[in-house]
Amino acid sequence: MKIISKNDVSIKALEILFESCFEELEENDEKKFDETNGQSLREWFAIDDLKAYQKYAQIIIAEEEGNLLGAVIVGKHSPLTWPDGKKCEIFNLGVLPEYRNRGIGRKLMEAAEKEAQSMGGKSIILNVHEIMVKTHRFYENLGYKKIGKLENYYDNGSAVFFMKRI
Known about the structure:
The protein has about 170 residues and is of the alpha+beta class. Helix content is about 30%, strand content about 35%. The chain has one domain (about 1-120): Gcn5-related N-acetyltransferase (GNAT) (Aminopeptidase, 3-Layer(aba) Sandwich). The protein has six helices and seven strands, in the order βααααβββαβαββ.
């Protein structure tokens, strides 16, 4: 398996990857991501914005024999939105369900942290939907600290924010 920065990765391959990442949601959780609740999984995961990420952020992928196993998207915040100009954000992270628990997510995050440092970042922030408790534990195990919860941040629930100094 290789971890590489690759902004020319196929948008369709990224779409399939990120759409597949929520297959393990419980039925009751999955119901929170539909049009009647104001936000589909496709919208929540910004699938239609992937092309913009190729232009303004760094996409790091995990691949094996040409097959996309996972990806992380990291970018630097504007000093207009974060006054110190030293924060980067993880916009998306996903590993195909059949490849989880093999360290791929950890390796992608390590690569994203190195990329953020090369961008001049001193810390990384990210947010996770409140129902994604397993994902919260994943980030905590990587040294990210909960820094707050923003009620109703998403159209269908609250966001838990995490940060790590790098």
